Amino acid sequence: MDSTKPLLLTDLVSGSKHVPSNYIRPEHDRPNLDEVEHYSLDGNSSSIPLIDLQRLHGPNHSDIINHIGHACQNYGFFRVKNHGIQEAVIDNMLRVAKEFFYLPESERLRSYSDDPFKTTRLSTSFNTRTEAVSSWRDYLRLHCNPLEDYVDEWPANPASFREEAAEYCRNVRGLARRLLAAISESLGLESDYVDRALGQHGQHMAINYYPPCPQPELTYGLPGHADPNVITVLLQDDVAGLQVRRNGKWVAVDPIPYTFIVNIGDQIQVLSNDRYKSVLHRAVVNSDKERISIPTFYCPSYDAIIGPAQKLIDEDEPAHYRSFTYGEYYEKFWNRGLQTQTCLDMFKTHIP
Ligand SMILES: O=C(O)CCC(=O)C(=O)O
Q1: Does 44 fall in a domain?
Q2: Residues near 196 by Cβ (< 8 Å), separated by ≥ 6?
Q3: CA of 265 to the centre of ligand 1 (A)
Q4: What digits encode the pLDDT tens for the residues 194-223?
Q5: Chain-centre distance of CA 132, in angstroms?
Q6: What is the whole-number distance in angstroms between the Cα of residue 152 and the centre of ligand 1?
Q7: Closest residue by Cα to residue 125 from 291, 133, 236, 31
Q8: Residue 12 resides in a domain
Q9: What is residue 110's three-state secondary structure?
Q10: pLDDT tens-digit profile of 275-314?
Q11: pLDDT above 80 for 340
């Protein structure tokens, strides 16, 4: 390795006018930004459903459960408002995230690792050990549950990072568990079904930092992929970049302040025996502005055994997947690199 070459994208490309060659996608695999569908955010139409979680408690409970079920089945994505997480918690998380990425290189690099199985690590692209083309992203990855097992590994600079990120994690964990109860109910399962299926529960967070890119049409922040976990709760700043696959097209999911974007991961697709879909999404970059997104990946513990819920299997719908441990799934996901073909196919039963 060239020891003088910066390890992180931010330091490599600061001020450069061209995308380095190892970030350029082959022509058949570029974002085609002109073909992306955009929806206005002024109310009448939306790229993904917006669900008011306040209405989960009260006389509209079953309407909201049905709304969540409909979104999981038809979009794999929805947005939530009135989710119970205070604006200050969100603001503080975004602030410390930005402050971290603005630290001098030498300070940031204290957290650097290219080992995808390290529980706290600052890295770049996706998996630099296996991928052929790099993605336009640096990211800090943190394990967050149980918090006390990991928080002392997290960056201590900026000074309030651990405190604010821990508060954010506790809040998102509460939200994720409420969502999992609603998703279980929407499948006709007991409300704690998914909760119990996850063993000890895992929670990981990525803080994605996408620097401005001089040629955004040539590369991705992250190429199309589905998430390997149970559900993802995504916070994004006010810069657009997330796009979701729908009816054969890429659709932009632009930011609405203080809402979260929720998507179904592969494990819910398995537990639901394919009733709910883990949908492809990607992040694109732009030439003007940096962007921060913070997905929380809620997941089973590695030893949890995942398979379709018995209640969702019958003669007409036999199990579409074999059972596996989440650890087995997770390793395949990281070792393979991001691909539009999901890992799910490797775990399918071959129904005649
Ligand atoms: O930046 C985004 O909006 C998407 C991030 C994402 O898909 C991921 O980190 O897996």
Answers
A1: yes
A2: none
A3: 12
A4: 999 999 999 999 999 999 999 999 999 999
A5: 22
A6: 25
A7: 133
A8: no
A9: helix
A10: 999 999 999 999 999 999 999 999 999 999 999 999 999 9
A11: no
Are 204 and 296 in contact, with CB atoms under 8 Å apart?
yes
Average pLDDT over the chain, rounded to an integer: 94
Pick from 290, 266, 238: nearest CA to 101: 290
C-beta of 8 in contact with ligand 1 (< 6 A): no
Backbone angles phi, psi at 339, to 5 degrees: -140, 155
> pLDDT higher for 340 or 221?
221
C-alpha 32 chain-centroid distance:
22
Beta pairing partners, 283: 222, 242
Give the pLDDT mean for 175-181: 98
The 3-state DSSP class for residue 243 equals: strand
In the reported structure, the alpha carbon of residue 150 is separated from the centroid of ligand 1 by a whole-number distance in angstroms of 22
Distance in angstroms (rounded) separating the CA atoms of residues 292 and 209:
5
Query: Which tens digits make up the pLDDT trace of 129-171?
Result: 888 999 999 999 999 999 999 999 999 999 999 999 999 999 9
Per-residue confidence (pLDDT) for residue 36, from 0 to 100: 96
Which of these, 56, 35, 46, lies nearest to 261 by C-alpha position?
Answer: 46
Closest to 238 in 3D by CA, of 16, 41, 37: 41
Q: Which pLDDT score, from 0 to 100, does residue 2 have?
A: 54
Ligand 1 atom nearest residue 137's Cα: 1
Q: Is 19 inside any structural domain?
A: no
- Our count of domains for the chain comes to 1
Closest Cα to residue 116, out of 108, 104, 124, 105?
124
Which residue segment(s) compose the domain that 92 sits in? 25-346
Q: Note whether residue 322 is domain-resident.
A: yes
Domain CATH for 293: 2.60.120.330
